[in-house]
Amino acid sequence: MKFFVFDIDDTLYDLKDPFVMAFEKMFGYLPHDIDDLFLDFRKYNNQIYDKALNGQITMTQMCNYRAQKSFYDYGIILDESSAQKFQRTYESVKNNITVNKHILDLMDRLKSNNIPMGIITNGPTYDQNMKIDYLGLRSYFDPDLILVSEEVGFHKPDKAIFDEMKNRICHKYNCPSPEIYYMGDSYDNDIVGAKKAAYNTIWLNHRRVAPLDLSVVDYHLTSYSSISILMDIF
Cross-referenced InterPro entries, in alphabetical order (predicted)? Predict the structure, then answer.
């Protein structure tokens, strides 16, 4: 029996969209290099995100760090107060996020073919659940197959969170050998982690990051539009 599990951030929706909205709302303009600034913002986020998840630093410290460091690289000086203001603005526009149309087409196909869907995502339980609601996707997912790292106590790429999903599937669907497909944008967190748990991995590499080892990637998609090739499988 087939099952399909998604990441949320930068998979179900494009993370750049709320960043761009927040920047324009706070500063009143968009720089020509906003795409590069966003990638820098993500780079600094990824440097210390695990520390925030593990409780070594607070989420506020992480948010201040990624904003101050990335904006500084582009000549914008943010003090701590301004960094926190940007974070509040960033949070305030997240209710405007929209699911990518190619993702939605895939989800409609999965739903019509009665393939159960789930989520494995890192982050705070409340925030990640609100994103599902903002995207209007709650009805697509089996509520027992929504795993948020804060709630379950493990975070990607730990194999334990992927094993927890497999255990829930086996128990609920009485399926000892489920065929699980997992789609995510992060090579390290999503793809390497899922492959350790013997999932079929779908790397949505729409940022076109150079991989270290494609042997852990079963399906390598370099754009949202290339999701269409999955229609033949499901």
Answer: HAD-like_sf, HAD-SF_hydro_IA, HAD_2, HAD_sf, PGP-like_dom2, Pyrimidine_5'-ntase_YjjG
Per-residue pLDDT at 50: 87
Buried b (16+ CB within 10 A) or exposed e, 163-201: ebbbebbeeeeebeeeebbbbbbbbebbbbbbbebebbb
What range defines the domain where residue 101 resides?
Answer: 2-13+97-230
**Segments in the chain below pLDDT 50:** none
* Residues 221 and 195 placed together within one structural domain of the fold: yes
Residue type, 196: K
Question: Do 40 and 114 fall into the same domain?
Answer: no
**Quick check: pTM over 0.85?**
yes
| Structural domain ending residue among the three candidates 94, 120, 143 | 94
Q: Tens digits of per-residue pLDDT, 48-81?
A: 988 998 889 999 999 999 999 999 999 999 999 9
d(CA 95, CA 133): 9
**d(Cα 103, Cα 109) in Å, to the nearest integer?**
10
- CATH number of residue 56's parent domain: 1.10.150
Burial 19-36 (b: 16+ CB within 10 A, else e): bbbbbeeeeeeeeeebee
Q: How far apart are CA 214 and CA 200, in angstroms?
A: 13
Name the domain boundary from 94, 127, 162.
94
How far is Cα 64 from Cα 70, in angstroms, rounded to an integer? 10
